[in-house]
Amino acid sequence: MATTFSSTTLLALALFTLLTSAAHSTLSPSFYNASCPKLQTVVRAAMVDVVRKEPRMAASILRLFFHDCFPNGCDGSILLDETPKFLSEKNAAPNFNSVRGFDVIDAIKSKVEKVCRATVSCADIVALATRDGVNLLGGPSWTVELGRRDSLTANMKAANEFLPGPSSDLAQLLNTFNRRGFTARDVTALSGAHTIGHAHCGFFADRMMGDTSIDSAFASLLQQNCSLSAGGGAAEALAPLDRTPERFDNAYYRDLIAHRVLFHSDQELFNNGPQDSLVRQYSADGTLFAADFAAAMVKMGRLNPLTGTSGQIRLHCSRVN
């Protein structure tokens, strides 16, 4: 499928790619080896406790990372509370009452501050917690590049404009991710994040009520379960994103083939289109999916980070120093 870009769009994409490449060149897996050698041990131990108590939180932290990085770069801006100077990204439409895990990041930050005062950014803690959460549910691990700094402000406008929605079609998905430097293969792999966690029924109500791309028996089951769990069908009821929501595996892709996924944007990856072949590959080869997902997550972590003297190392993730 071809996508047409204007010269202005191409120039903006080139500049974004240049800035991203220059910025991530200063990121390094060994960034804190001397200044905070216990960092990764502290974050991992904290996530072990978190995931043991609530496996769903691993998916929530993964989503928090994506919603931080994708609109404006991996800068911890989504963690900031609203102030008289700026609107919080927490209140943007894609985030309000759906993005969670802020308290988890705050708790890990407090633990890190006890061993390395004013050294590690909240943005880097989110990146490490994301990797560990995925891995603890049976998913891949990857080398997290570190050295990000925290933003001094939030960007609600970018969060509202650039995060893809659950009703997006394939062209919209590919275009949105392409603007951030991701390939169609990256999109298909990253969408596999929906192999863990749950979603509010309100986000896929249209799928239950007449979307022809969903298995009809599955749609009926969703209607029943959402109604029962909410005591009347409230949008806040939850449904699992795939058949094994507490295990990071390739079941999501098997559900795509069976037309039994929650979001229209997910089903677009397997709907007689160009991504069908890759979906079939991932459904049959979990190792291939895991490798591609890990590579795409490293790429996600390189999105326009603040480094050097830009931004700051926040002492509290919810507010600037």
From TrEMBL:
- Name the residues that bind Ca(2+) 2: 195, 242, 244, 249
User: InterPro entries in the record, alphabetically?
Assistant: Haem_peroxidase, Haem_peroxidase_sf, Peroxidase_pln, Peroxidases_AS, Peroxidases_heam-ligand_BS, Secretory_peroxidase
Tell me the Gene Ontology biological-process terms attached to this UniProt entry: hydrogen peroxide catabolic process; response to oxidative stress
EC class (word):
oxidoreductase
Enzyme Commission designation: 1.11.1.7
Name the cofactor(s) required for activity, per the record: heme b; Ca(2+)
Its primary localisation, in coarse terms, equals: secreted
Give Gene Ontology CC terms: extracellular region
Subcellular localization:
Secreted
- A Pfam short name: peroxidase
Q: How many cofactors are bound and how?
A: Binds 1 heme b (iron(II)-protoporphyrin IX) group per subunit. Binds 2 calcium ions per subunit.
Q: Give all residue intervals belonging to the Plant heme peroxidase family profile domain.
A: 26-321
Which terms are listed as keywords in the entry? Calcium, Disulfide bond, Glycoprotein, Heme, Hydrogen peroxide, Iron, Metal-binding, Oxidoreductase, Peroxidase, Secreted, Signal
Q: Which residues bind Ca(2+) 1?
A: 68, 73, 75, 77, 89
Residues in the active site? 67 (proton acceptor)
Q: Which domain of life is it from?
A: Eukaryota
Q: Where is this site: Transition state stabilizer?
A: 63
The residues the record assigns to binding substrate are 164
Q: Which Cys-Cys disulphide bridges does the record give?
A: 36-116, 69-74, 122-317, 201-226
Query: Which SUPFAM superfamilies has this protein been placed in?
Result: Heme-dependent peroxidases
Where does the chain cross the membrane? none
Q: Report whether Oxidoreductase shows up as a keyword of the record.
A: yes
Q: Which CDD domains match?
A: secretory_peroxidase (cd00693)
**What's this protein's function?**
Removal of H(2)O(2), oxidation of toxic reductants, biosynthesis and degradation of lignin, suberization, auxin catabolism, response to environmental stresses such as wounding, pathogen attack and oxidative stress.
Which family does the UniProt entry place this protein in?
A: Belongs to the peroxidase family. Classical plant (class III) peroxidase subfamily. Belongs to the peroxidase family. Ascorbate peroxidase subfamily.
The protein, known as? Peroxidase
In which organism is this protein found?
Ananas comosus
